[in-house]
Structure prediction request, 124 residues.
Amino acid sequence: MTTSNTGNAGGVEPAVRAELARLRESIDNIDAAVVHMLAERFKCTQQVGHLKAAHQLPPADPSREAQQIARLRSLAENARLDPAFAEKLLNFIIAEVIRHHESIADRRAARTSCRPALSACAPK
Prediction:
C-alpha cells in the first residue's frame, strides 16, 4: 500500500498545498465539463436512436463506429493523448450508445405490437 503526505498538512509546504489545490480545482472543473459534454452527446445519440428505431435501422453502425475510432485516435495523437486510451474510452461510450439504441428499439417495437390489441398489453 502506498501512502501520500498530501493529507498531512503539517508536513507539506504551504506553496505545495496551494499548487495542489489550484491543480485539483482545475481538474474538478474539467471533470464537470466532461460530464456535461457527455450528457449533451447522449442527448444527441438518444435522438439518433429514436430515428433509427422509427426507420427500422440497426442500433449499431460498424462503419460509422470505425470512422469515429480512427478520427478520435487522430485527435488524441494531435492532443498528445494516448490513442489507445482514447479508443478504449470511445468503445465504452459506443457500447453504451448501442445499448440505449437497442432499448429504444425494443420499447418502440413493444408499443407498435400492442397497438392493435391494447387489452392484450394492459397490465394485469
Observations:
- The two ends are 56 Å apart (CA to CA).
- The helical segments are 14-54, 62-78, 83-114, 118-121.
